[in-house]
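Give me the fold.
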Amino acid sequence: MTRNPLGRSIVFIMAFMVFAVACNNLPGRVGSLPGQGTTVRMGQATWDTGLFQAQIFKALLEELGYEVKAPETVDTIAFYFFSAQRDLDFWANGWFPLHDRYLEFEDVAGKIQPVGFQVAKGALQGYMVDKATADKLGITNLADLQDPEFAAVFDDDGDGKADLIGCNVGWGCEQVIDTQLDALELRDTVTHVQGDYSQLMQDTLARYQQGQPVLFYTWTPNWTVSAMAPGEDVMWLGVPSSSPADRDTEVASIPGCLEDPCNMGFEPSDIRVVANSQFLAENPSAATLFELVKIPLADIANQNIRMSAGENSEEDIRLHAEAWIDANREQVDLWLEAARLATQ
């Protein structure tokens, strides 16, 4: 009988491929897909500076085999209720301690939880004013706007009151700003301007570029602090220590703050995934991924700059996320392998 070495080689290769595929689909093995057959419903924030992180988590879950529906953009309070009801499984846009109160709502408590720390104690929030006006008037603190003459400098609509560009309705920062304006007796001299934050800040940037005074709330990471640099273009205002604050809001050596230590009025925040507790229990791979992923503040800020320069479509942001994953592939693969091992 004539032997066929080529035929035997093909059979061997095919058998090896079947074996490799089988091994790669065992729990905990490189290339396994623990999320296969599971559909994930994720939310994303109404603030565009959080969309980058959402796309990173979507892409990583898909690498684990999950089918992830397109993120549903929802207001902050709505997300916490939707996730508690399991209409949404998670989002990547929790800010703590700012969102602590949402976890305590009667219909939410015990049903959802924060997981991991994308950014730990690196997200600052507070009030900014253009440096030229601060230098001219000697303004260092939000309470200085109790003076009607100082406040009128920031009047944009002609009513004699300062126009403070603030938070969208429903954001966690909205209540903090309103509480501070009340406590500091600033309602007679300051208006909390609310609407579409991104558009309001584009208008604010345009006014600044025209040499007009500006007053606004912002946070990091955010394109605003790249377009108007703290210490050069704009300055952080201090907030009186007597204003309402549940935790330590003083931060030392903040670049561009008019006081040191700088009482920001907001405690530095952790940016965290928030997920339905039942979803986490049923999906240990996803839970492990959420626990491990870290996204440097500088990387988020750089992506935000690209968005503000016009790369702001859903496709653009998806490509930004994919590029970040590729640039950090070695670390990403370690996270993914740990997530796969969580199924064992």
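Residues 40 and 68 are 5 Å apart (CA to CA).
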